[in-house]
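Subject: for your reference before the review

Hello V.,

The reviewers asked for a structural picture of the protein, and I figured it would be easier to keep everything in one thread rather than splitting it across files. Below is the amino acid sequence we used in the manuscript, unchanged from the supplementary table.
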Amino acid sequence: MPQLPAHPHLDQLRRQARELHRAAAAGDESALQRLRAAAADTNSGPVTLSAAQLALAREYGFASWPRLKDEVERRHAAEAPDRTGAPAQVPVPVAEPGDGDADELIAGQYADRPHLRPVLDAVLAAAPALGPLTVVARRTCVSLLSAGRTFAVVQPTAKSRVDLGFRLEGTEPGGRLRVARNIGSGTINLRIALTAPGEVDDEVIGWLRRAYEQSVAPPAPRQPARRPAPVVGEMTVRIDGTDLPGLTCQPEPDGPAHRNIHVALHGKSQDRSALLMPGQPWLATEPAPADVPSVRWEVLVKVRRGEDGFDFGGPFVRGDRTDRHLGLAWGDVPGDGTLRLFRGAKLRLVDVDPSLIEQALRPGLRLVARVRLTDAKGNPICARLHPPYLTWTTEAADR
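And here is what came back from the structure prediction:
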């Protein structure tokens, strides 16, 4: 039985009842079953809006629609008013011009998973406390915007899960926060999986608030352009990968399964074998099937030395000054000249002991990264790599 959100709103409940009524009137069997279940003790089950309201009320554990309304009004009366003295109102979703009706867009998202709709309602009920915002219904998700900038997205991504995605700068995944992929726009970088409205708790609202505050914060003042530090030489870097995970995996139990997995080096060099990565500016360089005993890549990295230490460049070096790294790409290879990226891993050059960099710059030596490519769950290793999955050493170039 779904739980009533902690901060329910009558307009949201009326909208759910209308959607249920429309679905039942159109002959949707799951909607009709919900109406029949509610009308089991009345010997009557016509497809009316009142019947849909009764079904919704009983699903939330109330004997009738008036009882449900009374509980909603009681909770609103108990809530503290905002600074203007008026109770906060749940924002009503709107649709972009030409996209259709917002209610119908949302109904389509949850048509085959109505038990997850209360999760969206719980998020929207928490939204007014954040500050002025707009809720935009799209075909696959609902976006939360402040000052025209999307800071969060609610998207049903599986039959048993809704992903609440955040745009959070400077925050690493951990705990309930997972890396977000294919959620909303490309600016959403982290997510929390939700399966019931009760999971929209203080922690989730805290992350919502942080994302909102970042979105309305004034932009940082522009820093004057830095003059590049002088080049001190080129360093050969070899990556030795072992313990590959195999050609298939399903990192999340309710997520997609991946087949014919390959691993490749992120790069922009045109003189090596490579596959295109749709939607990515980088190439998947020298891809290898993920069931081979080991893989190896070797690249040249330009090394600069400034007042704050070493910096790195070259066609295979990614990231800004504080995050220079070599990247590995995991993806499905369907045989059409592309690698369909689903995971990536970072080998951060900025984490390497400067004394090792000094050694690797000497003639006849190179920097070696040894990488274990399967994580503790048997899936392709991803994100920022640390020991024991990654070790850096130097060795003679002729070994």
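For the response letter, the relevant points are probably these. Residues 10-25 form the longest helix (16 residues). The CA atoms of residues 154 and 164 lie 5 Å apart.

Happy to draft the paragraph if you're swamped.

O.
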